[in-house]
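To: structure subgroup
Subject: Chain for Friday's discussion

All,

I'm putting the inputs and outputs inline so they're searchable in the archive.
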Amino acid sequence: MPRFQWRGAHLDVSRSFMPKEFVKKYIDLLALHKLNRFHWHLTDDQGWRIEIKRYPKLTAVGAWRRPAGRAGTDASGKPTRYGGYYTQEQIREIVAYAQARYVTIMPEIEMPGHAQAAIAAYPELGVTGKNPGASHDWGVHTYLYNVEDSTFIFLQNVLDEVMELFPSRYIHIGGDEAAKDQWQASARVQARMRKLGVANEAAMQAWFIKRIETFLAAHGRKLIGWDEILEGGLPPQATVMSWRGSKGAIEAAQQGHDVVLSPDPDLYLNNLPSDLPDEPAGRAHVVSLQNVYAFDPMPKELGASAAKHVLGAQANLWGEYLPTDASVTYATYPRAAALAEVLWSPAASHDWYGFLDRLVAQQARYRMLGIGYSHSAFTVRIDADFKPAAGNVAITLSNQAGFGTIHYTLDGSEPTPQSPRYTAPFNAPARGSIRASAFAQAQALADARSRALDPVALRHKRVAELALCNPTGGVQLRLPDDRPANDHRAAYPV
């Protein structure tokens, strides 16, 4: 019997569109780990990804954008177009595919914010009446749906088609990061607020969410939204998905609402798994394999009664810096395996090193299935401190997980379990190179790492090895180069 009923993973296909066949593969891997909820983030400022037959411009216009930077222009100087969407036939196929694997797909249709792609398709849905185009950039945008009755008719018509496609009891409506600038500046919105007796814009969003919740409830569905839906008052039957830490989950559960935990940074797998210098692009806040395994989905602040409202947890994968199926898979595994065990097994049975022992066999399965998982937890870090006066190098070897036996060579050959075993820091001549790898159960846990030990090489640092000027301020990122469009790109810390 699993510890939690909600054991999930999210995928943002608005910012980075993923083809149908990869979505199926993603579902296969969830099922392999007994993760039973797939949160499909289908709409956002950067793209509308679900066919709505009543509103064809949502996909004809809203599903496409011109990429930022050099990627927005082809070799001949013409503008390029990025995007895609899923037809209703494809969605039915994917839903049936998931059901056959005991995975429930929960769609997310963002409102009232993150609506720029929809407003690009139908500008009359917005506050200004202007067409902003689907966004080609990330961040929080100010384009909100207006609060006219005609816009609610649009949203209800959209949700009618969504509910016909998805049998999920829960429909996710977003509700996050709704910057109120345009509502504040709009005479029509302000007049509507006065007519309704709504005190401020936060209360107006609460009124908006309650109206949608009433519509969904009338159709036998439950509204779920990000924890901002707590602001201004929560609809009585709404469920809260807490992403800004666990505070929203605690508050909602204490009020008697069901909650799902998906806090940033703990379960945001678009955060990098390590600070190794060759990690791909992404958020540079490290969420290690051990960080995920240490996450407790049951907040200690909750008493027995409130704790009953914790449905479970899920990992989130936002697509800003996950442009390919390979990048999504790398970000997800094996960290999702850690979350799967946390959500399934009793808390008292959790054992970090026991999990790592079992993960050795799981990684062998990954390789057999062709899953491009991250080795970061087991990759050997080689710290080399050059001692010019002595003419040697002080070598320290480690890996993030603190697991496995490290073996090394100094002659350029591939390390094996028969190579010298690392037990403590040692001195090596300042020439040649060192190669090292961690082993367990007679298997290499990650590809071997090497480092040149000659004085010239030791005096150089790659860009990724340099310390950030302000390591505690703002959002730290590893940003990808613009080129090549369809191949590996270098990533740089900023």
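Points worth raising on Friday:
The first strand starts at residue 6 and ends at 12.
The CA atoms of residues 107 and 325 lie 20 Å apart.

D.
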